[in-house]
Structures are given as C-alpha cells and as structure tokens.
Specification:
By secondary structure, this protein is mainly alpha-helical. Helix content is 62%, strand content 4%. The strands form 2 sheets. The chain has a 6-stranded parallel beta sheet, with helices on both faces. β7 (362-363) and β8 form a beta hairpin. α6 (215-224) runs parallel beside α8 (246-254), α23 runs antiparallel to α24 and α29 (688-703) packs parallel to α31. It is elongated, with a radius of gyration of 40 Å.
C-alpha cells in the first residue's frame, strides 16, 4: 500500500540549502498490528557475502503483500537512527508511480538542498542527482532514497540514484523486469504472510478492538484469504465495522454469488488507497500493454478458472488456450483488425511472462507441471468481472485445454496429479457449465486417470460423485449417465469387488440396450465388460460362453477387423485358456497374431498385446524358455516404440523376469529388484504395479533359497496392501496367502496352516466358495497340514477339494490336475505308496494330453511317480525312471534349474536304495558343488545334499565319515512338486 503526497515546487529566488538532517516526502505511517517479517531482516543486512555494501535494494511482489509497509518500516528505522554511524543525513520518500512524480520529488530535493532553480524541474532533478554523486573533496552525505510503487522501470531511465558508499536506494514495485536488478541492485521477493504471521496479525488486530476469536477460525479465515496482508487488513476492518463474526464473514466469502468487492469495508484501514479488486486492476491494464499486446488479460482470465497452486504449462499453451487468446485479445488501439490475429505458443508464453513481470502470477517454466501460480483472490477478482456468457465460454475453454494437454498414457504421475487437481478446481468454479449438455469429457478423463494411477478407490468415489450429479442434472437415460454407471462398475471391480461390478453391469445392460439399441458400440462394450467381470468373480466358463455369444454380433456390427472385434476375440481366447485349454489358447492367439500383423501391422497395440499373450500361453503350456525368448524380443520392440517408462514396457520387464525365473530364480529376483525403482519413479510407491513387483521380488527371493527373507518382505508388504487397497482386496488376500506359504517354506508349516485356516473364511466371504482363489487357498491349506505332520488330513482335504475343482473348473484344468497329483502324494505319505503310484500312473496320460510332455506339471508327475514306485519297494525302477526323466528336465528347464538339481538328488538317492551306495555317494559328491554354485551353500537343498552325501558314504563303508553326524532323512523328497502347491503368484495379476 502507498500514500500519495503532493509536492509543492515553489518559484522565486534561490534559497539557502536546508540544514541536515533533512527529509523530503512523507513516510507512510506504520499500519496497526504491523508484522515484523523475515523480509525486513533482509533489508537491514547492509553487507552481502562478499563484503560489499548493498547500495540498492528492490522489494518486489504482488499488490497487497505489504511492500510499502516494509519500506516505510525500514525508512523510519534508518531515520530514527540518525545519530548512529549508519544513520541518515537526507531521506527522500517518493511515490514513484509515474516519471513525472519522480522528477518532481527530485526537483524538490534539488531546490531544498542545492539551490536548484524550481522553475525547471528536469534541471533541478539533475542537480540533485549530481549533488549526491560522491566527490572526493565534498562533505560525505548519508542519504536514503525510497522509490515506492515503481510502475514502469522505464520511468527511471536516467533517474536512478548514483552509486555511492554513503547512499542507499530502496525500490518497491510489482514489476520483476531484469532492468530493476541491474547495476548490483539486490532483489527481495516479498511474499504472503506465513500461517503463523497471518494468525498473529488477525489475533492482534481484532484484540485491539476488544474482539477475541478462536484460533482455528482465524486460521481458516487466513486460509480463505490466501494469507494476503492487504486482504487480512480489509477483512479485519469489515469485521469491526459490520459486527459480523468470523463464521458469517467466511460464509460471505464462500458465497459464489457475492462479489469480492462486497467483502471489503466502506472505509479502508491504514490509509489504504484502493480495495483489493482495484489494487490489481491497474496491474492488469499495464500487463496488457506489454508484448504481445492484449494477451495478458485473456490469459489471466483462463488461469483464473484453474488451480491457484499450479497450472501445467501445456494447458495454457494448448490449442484451445491459443484459440481463446486470439478471440479475446484486448483491443489496444483504434485500428484493431476485424479478424483476430492467431496466437502462437510463444505468444502464450510471453503473455505469461508479462503477467509475471507485473507480479500477477508466478511463472516458473522450470517446473512445467506447476508452471503458473495465481493468488486465489486475484482469480476471484477476475472471475467476478466476467459476464455470464463469457464465464461459461471460459469454463468450457479451460476444460478443453485440460483435455488437450492430458496424455492418453500417463507416464508422469506429477503431471497427472496436476491435471486432476486443475480439473477439480475448474469443477469447483463451474460445475454447472461442465454438465450443460452432458458430462464434459474432462470429468470422465479425471476418473480414468485416478484409476490408472493406482487409486481405484478414489476413482470409484469420483464416479459415484459424477453419478449423483448426473442423476440431478441429466435424464436417467442420457447416454452420459449410462457411461458414468458403466465406468463406475469397472472401477468398482478394480477395487477388488468383481461380483459387485458384474451385478452393476448386469443391471445396467437392459437400460443401455433400450436406450442405445442392441448394436450400439456402447452396448457391445457393456456386454464385453460384463463377461470379463463375471470371469473375475469366479465364473471363467460363463465369461468364455458370454464372449463366444458376443463375438459374432461385434463382427456383424463393427466388421472382423475393427479394434472392438479383435479385442473381444482376444478376451475370448484368454478366458478359454483360463478355463483349462491353454494349448488351445496358444494356438488361437498365434492365429490371431498372424491376422493382426496383416490387418493392423506389427507395431499396433493390439498386435503387441497378442504377442504378450502368446508368450504367456507358451509358458503356461510348458515352454518357459520360449516364453522368455518371445517376451525379450517383445521388450526390445516396446522400448523402441513406447519408451522405457511406458506401462506396457514395464509390465513386459516383469513378465520377462517371471519366465526367466522358471529356470533362474536368482536372476529373476535381480531383474525385479532392478525394475522396482523404475516402477516407483514412474507410478509411485502405492501403485498396484509397484506393490505387485514387491510381491514378485519376495517370491523370487524365496524361490532362490531365502524363504525367510521372502516371508519378511511379504510381512512388510501386507500393511501397505491393506492401507492402499483395503483388507478385502483380492491382492491383499493373495499377499496373506503368499506370506503363509513362505513362512511354511521357512520351517513353520504349522504356522502356515494356521494362517491359511484364518485366511480361508475371508477369501470365501469376499470371492465366494467357488472362486479359483478360494479353491487355491484350500489346496495350500491342505498342503501345509501335510507338511505339519498330518498327511492323512492333507489327503482327506484334497479328496474333498477335487470334486469341487472338477465341477467349477473342469477335469482338465491345471489346478484340477495338480490337485490329483497332490492327493496321490499325500496318500503315499500317509502310508499308501503303492496307491499313490497307481494314482500318478493314471494321472500322467491326462497331464501329457492336456499340458504336453514338457510341461512342469508333467515332469513333476513323472518325478513323483518314480518316487512312490521306489517307496513301494521298487527302488531300481524308480532310479531307472528318474534316469530317463533327467535329460528331459535338463532340456526343458536347463541343467541349473532347481528342479533339475532335485531330480539328480532323487536319482542318487534311489541308486543307493537299489543297492549302489557308492554310486549314490558319487552322484551326491558331483551334485554338491553345482548346488553350492547355483543355490548357495546355505540353501536347504544344498544342506540336504551334504547330509545325504555323508549318509551314503557311510553306507558305502567310508568309516572316516561319522555316520552319527547325520541320519537319513526325508529331505530328498522331490521339491518340484511344491511348485504346484503355492498360492497364486502375484505376477499373474499384472
């Protein structure tokens, strides 16, 4: 704030110079409840870090932050300290809003101090400036010149006070031009009050009038006013004059029908010259004169509709923004063209710089996602002055600009967050405009962004809010209302409620069919989504059937090569594979890939997705090496096409680690450990993909021989799952199952069984008794009961589970086949090895038929069949079968795969049991260094081999090996079987 003074230049004969100390101009009085601030301390620092006196300082900041008061406090203090070494002889206070005012004040000083001719102000001003220029023989004069409220740096051309070791210059201005900081002048940015300063100011100012208000209400009021000193001062005056309490005043501020001008007192406090709105009006006018002329005002109007705390650069330079600037360019002269000149992105940036130079905005191009900040009261002032039709047009422009700047694939979580925040601000100012003809697409884009960024619950809340608004402003059958309901159902499923999503879509579908017709693309999409969520809810057979029924309709309506048709076809293949026909899914995906490459080209997203699906089905059908090779090739193409941070690229890295982990869990753990920081950087630490990677890293660490470490990692992950996703989300339940599994693997099978018994009711409640995850949990519980010493109980549990699997998933599903294998195993462990061998012999042809001879379950079944034949008094036959199996395991999985090492261990064991202890010892001696190299010396399998080696050496007559050091144990039992007893691994959800 500033106080204007009238300087009288008297004409007549020259008079004697005024004695020192002497003051020209009036220093504004200190405001009531003046706050001593950090900026005041900066002004009083007379020496900078290099030891040179600070001779010129510039206080810059938006109107209303208290620059004049800080300058006045500085001047009063310096003047009152005149007797001290740092005191003053001359003080000149100039209201420097025009060049004429500056010249007039200098002239008065020239007349007063150096007998200048008052009839020629220009020469009198020059005389004064020359007089204060340091001279070697002259008496030193200690002076301070304050140039308050400099409006244009050009006004100071040839009028800057000279550099002098005895003089100081202080400028206050809203401008930020580089010219102000020339010649060593130091710039001090004057900002808003801090929250503490604002609270102190309000408390002190009201107390001076006998008013006491609760601190929380004062803090709230300060926040409403953006901690702006001028606004706080005028608010206090209004409260005193009106008698209103703070609650009423805040309600007045919040009322959008109230103009900001109606919230200021009739008489302004502390000698203030203008109310808030007028304080910025002149700055806006001045900014509009800067190049590119006429664009600052429409740019500020656009910024006024968005987030005060940060607007992305791309929004304000978008195509809709440029169209707005061109159409609403302020007329700056009588010859303005009829057709508006187009505005370029550079024009938009220069308009921002003009507003920045006048301190109407803060423009920080180095932080492009929050490049522009505008005080909330400046925004309100601008919006208050917009006619209703322009307000609506501007709101639509802002929405279009946000949508234009929004990338289809969000690779930058900070940009996505900024766009969502700006959309929320726009909706807060103009929700009615965004719903005039239906839901503006930016509202739907915000919900999608929330979900894709990992905030599915927030997406559900957003769409529920949209649904409530749609119900109030749109007809129930409006297409946008139906779209909101469909999207809401989709994100409801993503929060872990597939049953609810399916139910919501089933309820929605008849309305969509009635309103849009059975062949409308949205109707077909709703049917496809409904099928998918039914499958996720535990009915994969029903999902496949629904998609098989839908596909011909989509082909008829959209054509066989349309993206919707191909997407439906791909999902049908996937659900058929999940229902128990992975080989058929692989063949169908391979055919689809051929079609896609011909129709869409090799780089189309659907083609890339099909390649990922084909790799997956190859791995599931028993070719993990082929899956890894195909995934690695796909990854190279994705990095070229999409970039290393694209979600599909990151997911493919995770898939590659998964398929490589089948042969090399140590390498898989290293790959996921390298992937995790990239996921955290791109998606954030709470994104589902990041959490999945943490679960996968724990899994591969466990597979690599550190089950205790895996359990510890999952114990650390679980609370994050519960916090982010909720305790009932399927991924949270999966983490609980995996934690139980690795605790069991780490030596606590009884604890694992107890945890799984506690988990099972929750899984049944959330997903239903027939969901695959529920059935898997039952399988794992049975397994760890057996591991805890109850093989008969495990066999009984598997016998109870098997008919449910056959009913729900079918007899050929991999989980059904695995359960038959496990049932045989635990029957054998319970004392019936011959029965176990018979069951496995019956199972083997089915596994080979469904999964192929090289599938891991096929190999495990052959291994376990050999084992139980050996236990059934045929160790030689067992050894022969294992000798026949070993080359196949090494060919399929590689010689260093844990299952290959386990097969060698089992073969050595049965050789010994068949009467060749020396051969067994030799085989174990050959195996041990390979296990130490691959698994490490402390891996349980390595330790078991060392034990068995000692045993068989003893059996072979090597009495130097102390037999009592280790007894034959069951540690040799094929661990490959356990690969089919794990809880569903989290990589399957990626």
């Amino acid at each position: 704030m500033s106080v204007e003074t009238l300087t009288m230049v008297q004409h007549g004969a020259p008079r004697e110079p005024a004695p020192w100390p002497h003051q020209i101009g009036v220093i504004p009085a200190q405001a009531r409840s003046f706050q001593h601030r950090a900026e005041a301390e900066q002004l009083r620092a007379t020496v900078d870090g290099g030891g040179t006196a600070v001779l010129g300082q510039v206080l810059t900041g938006m109107g209303g932050v208290g620059k004049t008061q800080l300058a006045a406090d500085y001047a009063h203090t310096a003047w009152e300290d005149g007797s001290r070494a740092g005191g003053l002889d001359i003080l000149v206070w100039i209201v420097a809003s025009t060049r004429e005012a500056i010249v007039s004040s200098y002239a008065q000083a020239g007349v007063d101090l150096c007998r200048a001719d008052p009839s020629d102000p220009e020469k009198a001003a020059e005389s004064f400036l020359a007089w204060i220029t340091p001279k070697s023989a002259a008496r030193p004069c200690r002076w301070l010149i304050v140039l308050d409220d400099v409006t244009d740096p050009a006004d100071l051309h040839r009028l800057w006070p000279p550099a002098s070791p005895h003089g100081r210059t202080l400028v206050t201005t809203r401008r930020r031009d580089a010219a102000l900081a020339a010649d060593g002048r130091h710039t001090v940015e004057v900002g808003l009050f801090t929250e503490a300063e604002a609270l102190t100011y309000l408390t002190t100012s009201l107390a001076a009038h006998g008013r006491v208000e609760p601190a929380d209400r004062l803090t709230g009021l300060a926040g409403d006013l953006g901690h702006l000193p001028l606004a706080l001062a005028q608010a206090v005056a209004y409260l005193i004059d009106s008698g209103d309490d703070i609650v009423s005043y805040r309600a007045l501020l919040a009322d959008r029908t109230t103009m900001l001008a109606d919230t200021v007192p009739d008489r302004l406090p502390d000698g203030q010259a203008r109310p808030l709105a007028a304080a910025w009006s002149l700055s806006i006018d001045r900014a509009d004169t800067l190049r590119p002329a006429g664009l600052a005002r429409p740019m500020l109007q656009l910024a006024a509709m968005l987030d005060a705390n940060g607007i992305p650069h791309d929004v304000l330079t978008s195509s809709p923004a440029l169209t707005h600037l061109a159409a609403h360019r302020t007329r700056t002269g009588p010859h303005t063209a009829t057709e508006p000149a187009p505005a370029s992105p550079r024009d938009a940036v220069l308009a921002l710089r003009a507003l920045h130079r006048l301190s109407l905005i803060d423009h920080a191009p180095d932080t492009p996602h929050q490049a522009v900040r505008v005080h909330q009261l400046i925004q309100r002032t601008v919006r208050d002055r917009l006619p209703a039709d322009q307000y609506k047009e501007l709101a639509r422009t802002a929405a279009d600009a946000l949508l234009d700047a929004w990338p289809d694939i969000e690779l930058d979580i900070n940009l996505a967050q900024a766009l969502r925040t700006n959309t929320a601000s726009l909706a807060d100012h103009a929700q009615h405009v965004l719903w005039e003809t239906g839901a503006h697409l930016v509202l739907l884009r915000t919900g999608r962004s929330l979900g894709e960024s990992g905030h599915a619950s927030a997406a559900v809340d957003h769409y529920r809010s949209l649904a409530v608004t749609a119900h109030g402003v749109l007809a129930p059958d409006h297409p946008d209302a139906l779209t909101v309901r469909r999207d809401l159902a989709g994100w409801q499923g993503s929060t872990g409620d597939p049953v609810g999503a399916a139910a919501a879509l089933a309820e929605l579908l008849p309305h969509v069919e009635r309103v849009l017709g059975p062949d409308h693309p949205d109707t077909l999409t709703t049917r496809r989504d409904l099928a998918g969520w039914r499958g996720q809810a535990g009915d994969p057979v029903g999902a496949a059937a629904a998609l098989a029924e839908l596909l011909p309709h989509v082909e008829r309506v959209q054509g066989p090569d349309h993206d919707d048709t191909l997407t439906t076809r791909n999902r049908l293949i996937s659900w058929r594979g999940i229902t128990g026909d992975p080989a058929g899914a692989a063949a169908a995906t391979e055919q689809m890939l051929t079609d896609l490459e011909q129709v869409k080209g090799p780089d189309h997203p659907l083609t890339l997705s099909a390649r990922m699906g084909l790799a997956r089905w190859r791995g599931i059908t028993g070719d993990p090496a082929g899956a890894a090779a195909a995934t690695e090739q796909l990854l190279t193409d994705l990095e070229r096409l999409k970039g290393s941070d694209h979600p599909l690229t990151l997911n493919t890295r995770g898939n590659l680690a998964f398929w490589r982990g089948k042969a090399n869990p140590v390498g898989a753990a290293a790959a996921v450990a390298a992937l995790l920081p990239d996921l955290e950087r791109v998606n954030g630490s709470d994104h589902p993909d990041t959490l999945n990677a943490r679960g996968n890293l724990a899994r591969w660490r466990g597979e690599a021989g550190d089950p205790a470490g895996a359990a510890a990692s999952l114990a650390e992950l679980l609370p994050d799952r519960e916090r982010v996703l909720g305790p009932d989300h399927p991924d949270t339940l999966t983490t609980r199952g995996n934690l139980a599994r690795w605790r069991g693997e780490a030596g606590d099978p009884a604890g694992a069984a107890a945890s799984l018994a506690e988990l099972l009711p929750d899984v049944e409640r959330v997903l239903g008794p027939d969901h695959p995850d529920t059935l898997t949990t039952r399988s794992n519980l049975a397994h760890f009961r057996g591991e805890a010493g109850d093989p008969a109980g495990a066999a009984a549990a598997y016998a109870e589970l098997l008919p449910d699997l056959e009913r729900v998933l079918g007899p050929d599903h991999s989980l059904t086949l695995t359960t038959r294998s496990n049932l045989a195993r635990w029957r054998g462990e319970a004392g019936d090895p011959a029965g176990a061998a018979a069951s496995l012999a019956e199972l083997l042809p089915d596994v080979e038929r469904v999964l192929g001879p090289d599938h891991s379950l096929t190999l495990a079944t052959r291994s376990n069949l050999a084992h139980f034949r050996g236990e059934a008094e045929d160790p030689a036959g067992a050894a022969a079968s294992l000798a026949e199996l070993l080359p196949d395991v090494e060919r399929v999985l590689g010689p260093d795969h844990p299952d290959a090492l386990t097969t060698r261990s089992n073969l050595a064991h049965f050789r010994g049991e068949a009467g060749d202890p020396a051969g067994a010892a030799a085989a174990y001696a050959e195996l041990l260094p390979d296990q130490e190299r691959v698994l490490g010396p402390d891996h349980p399998d390595t330790l078991t081999t060392r034990s068995n080696l000692a045993v068989w050496r003893g059996e072979a007559g090597d009495l130097e090996k102390p037999e009592e050091a280790v007894r034959r144990n069951e540690g040799w039992l094929s661990r490959s079987l356990r690969h089919f007893l794990k809880a569903r691994n989290e990589n399957d959800r990626s």
